[in-house]
UniProtKB/TrEMBL annotation:
InterPro entries: HTH_LacI, LacI/GalR-like_sensor, Lambda_DNA-bd_dom_sf, Peripla_BP_I. This is LacI family transcriptional regulator. Residues 6-60 form the HTH lacI-type domain. Keywords: DNA-binding, Repressor, Transcription, Transcription regulation. CDD domains: HTH_LacI, PBP1_LacI_sugar_binding-like. Transmembrane segments: none annotated. PROSITE patterns: HTH_LACI_2 (PS50932).
Length: 334
């Protein structure tokens, strides 16, 4: 991006304050004590810091645009999150630029270039390496992490994953008495899937039941659920219940079981995560975890707009609640 000179982190470190405080002092906004302001101004002068790229442009919202970066863009989950993000942005009279990195090698450079065209960026977990997020921060770009594991110094908005999956798995283990469960989803590279796998393991530990050694590592699309189920059955493994990292995968599992002449939940129970609209279309309904996808997008946009205005604590970690939704696919019969 061609930016030079000292960074916000260098000024903040020298003054012994947060980057948000440096931002407020540089732009002349917000509440800062006279003593702190003096320390920051001294550090700015010492480093010959000229925050024009950060100050007026952000105060005036020069671009009147926010960016949001995903690892991919297909499926109902992303559309719901984008819808919520765009709604909040429109109410603030700013536009939205959307990028799917699809894990391309040059995605870091593409996002750094995008940062020059927006006033702040929301980055979904798994879309970018941590070092690229840090580079964005060093350049003075407001960044909020979305559905990500927390990163020190970066505001984050995420949902309750591990505890929700533990509750759902405990329902299968304890309420139904199922002993042999399989987990379909790949924790590698996906913070959400990682937390859900951890919750799955925690429930087994608490119930005193031996969990599977490994998850069935596939993606998060319906076709991946079909592939995972076919792999399980072809290998002669037939779990009593299949716990999926998301609803799309679960729907693929159901199709694969039907293709083999197996019944859900009588032969094998199936659960998902997200509560997408299609989760209610099965004859018995899909037992799942409801997460507020649209609100996740809205809250991320709200937080990012506040960050652009220098009003967000970099240590903020906002966790939205989730709810287990019991339908028929787990064996409850309704």
């Amino acid at each position: 991006m061609g930016r030079k000179g000292p960074t916000l982190h260098e000024i903040a470190r020298d003054a012994g304050v947060s980057t948000a405080t440096v931002s407020r002092v540089a732009r002349g906004v917000g509440q800062v004590s006279p003593e702190t302001r003096a320390k920051v101004l001294e550090a700015i002068e010492k480093h010959h810091f000229r925050p024009s790229h950060l100050g007026r442009a952000l105060v005036e919202r020069r671009h009147a645009a926010l960016g949001i970066v995903f690892p991919g863009l297909s499926g109902p989950y992303y559309s719901e999150v984008i819808n919520g993000f765009e709604q909040e942005a429109l109410e603030a009279s700013v536009s939205v630029l959307i990028m799917g990195t699809h894990l391309l090698k040059q995605s870091g450079d593409l996002v750094l270039g995008m940062a020059d065209r927006v006033d702040g960026l929301a980055v979904m977990g798994g879309a970018l390496p941590d070092d690229v997020v840090r580079r964005l921060q060093d350049y003075g770009d407001p960044v909020v992490l979305l559905a990500s594991r927390p990163l020190v110094g970066v505001p984050t908005v995420r949902i309750e994953n591990a505890a929700a999956m533990a509750r759902l798995t405990a329902h299968l283990l304890t309420d139904h008495g199922y002993e042999h469960l399989a987990f379909v989803g790949n924790p590698d590279g996906s913070p959400d899937a990682t937390y859900r796998w951890q919750g799955f393991l925690q429930a087994h530990q608490r119930a005193g039941v031996e969990p599977p050694a490994e998850p069935i590592r596939v993606g998060l699309q319906q076709s991946d659920g079909f592939i995972a189920t076919s792999r399980l059955l072809d290998d002669g493994r037939r779990p009593r219940a299949i716990v999926c990292a998301n609803d799309e995968t679960a729907l693929g599992v159901v199709v694969a079981l039907m293709d083999r002449g197996l019944r859900v939940p009588h032969d094998i129970a199936v659960t998902g995560f997200d509560d997408i609209p299609m989760a209610t279309l099965m004859a018995s309904g899909l037992t799942t975890v409801h997460q507020p996808m649209r609100e996740l997008g809205r809250e991320t946009a709200r937080l990012l707009l506040r960050h652009v205005d220098g009003e967000v604590d970099a240590a903020l970690d906002r966790v939205l609640e989730t709810q287990v939704v019991i339908r028929g696919s787990c064996g409850c019969g309704g």
